[in-house]
Amino acid sequence: MTGATEGSHPTGHDPDRIKCVVWDLDGTLWDEIAVETPTDELPVPRPEMLAAIDALAARGVLSSLASRSAPAVLDRMDAVPGLRERFLAPQVSWQDKSESLRRIAKDLGIAVEALLLVDDSPYERAEVEALLPGVRTLDPGEVPALLAAFEDREVTPESRERVRRYRTEETRRAEGERFQGTREEFLRWCDMRLTVGPAADEEVARALELAARTHRLNSSGLTPDRLRALAAADGHELCTARMSDRFGEYGIIGAALVDRTAPGSWSVPLLALSCRVAGRGAAAAFLFWLMERARESGAERFLVTLRPTDANLEMRILLRQAGLRRTEADAGGEGDGAVLARALPGGAGEGGGDLPKPPAWLHVSTRKDAAA
Question: Going edge to edge, which strands form the sheet with 136-138?
Fold first, then answer.
């Protein structure tokens, strides 16, 4: 194994960091070189590689392609039943592998560091490691160790549906490119709906997964174990957000832990949302719903724990736009996190004051308490 240093998992892989495995073709997915075959038929894929791709998909890990080959090879894959559909945002061209990986990450809306490359060529792996030092790379012979890292991971309903939902996202993106109008008009046309409320028991596993796997829209990086312990403590509540639009269900895309133990205050040690909803206003809507709910309960102060990282700039900007500022005393922060706070205007039942409102194109509703 090469690339960035992995976590403490015994296999050497940190499954929480891997969202998409990118596969080479020649010498990796199949033995031969596709452009050198005497006919238009593709080389026969290695059964163990297809099985690995399917096993990863069942656990919510996406697969893509990055191959330095003729683009026509990708077209030929359409003729093989069940082959092309396994891969999202594939890149088959003569460009450098590092550039292919950048484009895959952009198309999928995930950080490039969430990719892992499987390639038989030491040169190609070295090129990616040099230009994308956050990306891990593997020789095909190391795939069994990669699969072993996922064996004991809890599989949530969202994990099982992740590949299908990313395919739906490809449809959304294509419709957006064809849409005649502004970005806001397209978002309105999508008829996006956010449903928020206390987490049901069956939603807790997904909330823990969001805490572990989201980085771009994650306020504090609270660990799943710490989140689970705090959620079970008196005076704490775990909330989740579901989203849908005219194309289908996104599933649970947001989680927030609320701490109401301090008189007159609501504190949020963790706010985390899936990167799949970045740019759609869901993070802002979820945050503003929490602030409004705190105000309606009579709270005078709203706080969020923030641990700045290279990845969560978008979250930091959102918190600042919502009027949250760093407190003089960061008491109550988790680990190396700071505490941002703002006053809640008005009192219970006195109107929203200057609290920000969700984006106009997003319909927000509150579901009944899980205990109801």
Answer: 91-93, 62-68, 20-23, 115-118, 136-138
CA 288, 290, 292: angle at the middle one, nearest 5? 70
Sign of the alpha-carbon dihedral angle for 294, 295, 297, 302:
positive
pLDDT average, residue stretch 138-143? 96
The C-alpha atoms of residue 269 and residue 304 are separated, in whole angstroms, by: 6
Query: Please, where are the H alpha helices in 3-46?
Result: none
**Closest by alpha carbon to 315, among 290, 278, 363?**
278
Collapsing DSSP to helix, strand or coil, 16 comes out as coil
CA–CA separation, 14 vs 12, rounded Å? 7
CB 28 within 8 A of CB 139: no
Strand 192-198 to 236-245 pairing: antiparallel
Structure confidence by residue, pLDDT tens digits, 22-76: 999 999 999 999 988 777 789 999 999 999 999 999 998 999 999 999 999 998 9
Q: Which residues contact residue 345 at a Cβ distance below 8 angstroms, ignoring those fewer than 6 apart?
A: 295, 352, 353, 354, 355
Q: Judge contact between 193 and 245, C-beta under 8 A.
A: yes
CA distance 231 to 102: 37
Q: What is the pLDDT of residues 216-275, one digit of tens each?
A: 899 998 888 999 999 999 999 999 999 999 999 999 999 999 999 999 999 999 999 998
Where is pLDDT greater, at 336 or 104?
104
| CB contact burial 125-134 (16+ within 10 A = b; e otherwise) | bebbbeebee
If you search the block for the tokens 């403590």, which residue do you land on?
233
Q: Please give the helix or strand (H or E) that residue 65 lies within, else none.
A: strand 62-68
Overall residue count recorded for the chain in this entry: 372
